[in-house]
Design goal:
Length: 227
């Protein structure tokens, strides 16, 4: 079985949801959910956490011997630093190989989905240099100027009959060190494959409304109401 290194970057500060990475949700700090899913996937050989937070580093390092900490250098700290710069720093330290980057803000992602994504990534390498998670949308979309983007208002198709479009949902990204460099240090390469993630697992916490939704779904999963 081919395995990959998971990258799980986290910073202490959060603008819209203060302290969200360590804030407790359904009995656990937020980042524990996706970290546990990564560690539970047999396709993940290790998880590297790049962070500027000593509490996160100490907590995460004590969870498993397969968790490794990269202390974030000062020049990569701050809210305006591109994630691709963080990845470039980690890849430079770790060397050649294949990587999966995830976010702590995706607490509903499961080990099974992670494993499926890794398997699809390797199966598609002959034609694609990377893979990223997407959410299928079949709804009527408009531009900021009010123009229809994916439908004709004069022909009122049912939404289930519309041509689907896909939203990058930030759940996961797969790439190689070589492909990352070839794409000018970009986690999405020049011939990326899309990997569809179900809407429940794709929930990403950006604000308090997202937090409430994720918390509700985690509670439902704990009760066995959803998978």
């Amino acid at each position: 079985m081919t395995t990959v290194t998971a990258l799980l970057p986290m910073k202490a500060h959060s603008e819209r949801v203060p302290g969200k990475n360590t804030r407790v949700i359904v009995g656990r700090p937020l980042f524990h959910w996706v970290l546990s899913a990564l560690l539970a996937s047999p396709h993940i050989s290790r998880v590297v956490i790049n962070t500027d937070s000593e509490p996160i580093a100490q907590d995460a390092a004590g969870i498993s011997e397969h968790v490794h900490i990269h202390v974030r250098p000062a020049e990569l700290c701050g809210d305006d630093v591109s994630m691709n710069r963080i990845i470039a720093h980690d890849v430079a330290l770790l060397g050649e190989g294949h990587y999966l980057q995830a976010h702590a803000t995706s607490p509903l992602l499961t080990p099974e989905t992670i494993s499926r994504a890794v398997a699809q990534y390797f199966a598609a390498l002959s034609g694609h240099d990377s893979l990223f998670g997407v959410t299928r949308l079949q709804t009527r979309l408009y531009s900021a100027g009010g123009s229809p983007m994916n439908h004709d208002p004069a022909t009122l198709l049912r939404t289930q009959d519309l041509e689907p479009v896909f939203e990058e949902n930030s759940s996961l990204y797969l790439f190689s060190a070589e492909g990352f460099r070839r794409a000018n240090d970009n986690r999405i390469g020049t011939s990326a494959a899309m990997f569809e993630v179900g809407r429940i697992e794709a929930v990403d916490i950006d604000d308090e409304a997202d937090w409430i939704l994720a918390e509700t779904l985690l509670e439902m999963r704990r009760r066995g109401d959803i998978a």
